[in-house]
Amino acid sequence: MRLLRKFGMTCLLLCMLPLVGGCWDRTEVNDLGLIMAAGLDLADNGNVELSVQVFTPSQSSSEGGSNSLMGGGSGGSNSIIVQSASGTDFADAAAKLQEQMPRKVFWGHGEVFIFGEKLARKGILNQMDFIFRHPQPRERAYVFVSKGDAKEILKIIPKVERDVAETLREMAILPFGMGVSLKDLSEMLTGRSKAAVVPLVDSKVEADGNAFPYITGAAVLKDGKLTGTFGDKVKRETLLIRNKLKRTNVTFPVSGNRGKDEGKITAQIVKGRTALIPVIRGHSWSIIVRFDGEASILQNETRINVTKPQELRGVEEQLNKEIEKRVAETFRLIQRETGADIFGASDAFWRKYPKVWLREQRRWDEIFPNVNVRAESRVKILSPGFSGKSYK
User: Fold this and answer.
1) Residue 7, Cα to own-chain centre: how many angstroms?
2) Residue of 372, 388, 360 lying closest to 328 (CA atoms)
3) What are the CA-CA distances from residue 136 to residues 27, 108, 253, 318, 342 (Å)?
4) How far is CA 275 from the centre of its chain?
5) Helical ranges in the chain per DSSP H
6) Phi, psi torsion values for 146, nearest 5 degrees
7) Range list of H helices, 40-146
8) From CA 367, how far away is CA 361, in angstroms rounded?
């Protein structure tokens, strides 16, 4: 009986073998157009212009060092092309892009999405819907807003990295960089404040005529629309307030015992943690931005001997005053210029005062611009650097 059962199972398995699919629906790598970066711009007729950086695997192996559509240099840059298509929205433009290409478009390798400034001011929520509804794009891909058209950023051929996508990705993950993924952006735009901050990217032309992309500051989005752009200094303080700062340098003026200007000192913040402490008293809403961190001296242009504990404590006090000043100024600037809560203050109030928040949350856009802010910095200088006295 047992033998008969085994025989029956074997026959059943043999009958099923022809039905097993195997690799009949495989797609060869040489048949794919791998999207490494995508840029979205607002066309003159109001449509969406989609530009993509496409990596073509077969060209990289067969053409060697020859130039492609973009020209390119050595290494992998010669296998990168830029292709554009316009449509009523992202999905329509993507469909028309596929019609122009002999290879199957694959979004799973996309590292970077760039929204042009004009499109960002009009709004990006509708275009984000396609990205998150499509099964291929990575949630960990980084998002940028460009000064001018995103297409112009994608056309740049960098000298150091393989392409623009790799260049921007490496800049985003630096300790002092600003990396905002699609997942991060989605959480910010659907959060209580419905506000987000993303890196602002621009291009710079060198003396030899070559251009390179770089992160020049931060772009603030409210309800999916660009409401303001700010420089690199505001970007750093924003990261600090949001508890996203990994490392940064602070250069500040230092005064001696008698108030005399001694020069400047640069300290590097190597570790830090920010806490937002909300306070509601009557109809007054305020928030304390408390920063605790550790620092080391990078450069000393004064006559102060930072190896002496008593003099180092004075430098430490002035460093904290400088951080408090910058943080408060940045918070008020964002309040005044955009009215967008990119710092997570709404979450802090909700956690501490849930009942008050539920009652007043519809008025948050009116409340936030009037929230009083106070900064408290408690940074400890743990290392004066490897050098002792200043050269002065």
Assistant:
1) 62
2) 372
3) 15, 5, 51, 50, 28
4) 21
5) 2-16, 57-62, 90-100, 117-122, 125-133, 150-154, 164-172, 182-189, 232-241, 309-337, 345-352, 354-360, 364-367
6) -105, 150
7) 57-62, 90-100, 117-122, 125-133
8) 9
CA distance 155 to 243: 34
CB atoms within 10 A of CB 379: 21
For residue 310, give both structure tokens: 């008593």
Cα 117 to Cα 227: distance, rounded to the nearest angstrom: 10
How far, in Å, CA of 293 to CA of 196, rounded? Answer: 25
- Full pLDDT tens readout for the chain, 392 residues: 666 676 667 777 777 656 555 555 555 667 788 899 999 999 999 999 999 999 876 544 444 443 333 434 334 444 778 999 999 999 999 999 999 988 889 998 899 999 999 999 999 999 999 999 988 898 999 999 999 999 999 999 888 788 899 999 999 998 888 999 999 999 999 989 999 999 999 998 877 778 889 999 999 999 999 999 999 889 999 999 999 988 899 999 998 766 677 799 999 999 999 999 999 998 899 999 999 999 999 999 988 888 888 889 999 999 999 999 999 999 999 999 999 999 999 999 999 999 999 999 999 999 999 999 999 999 999 988 776 666 66
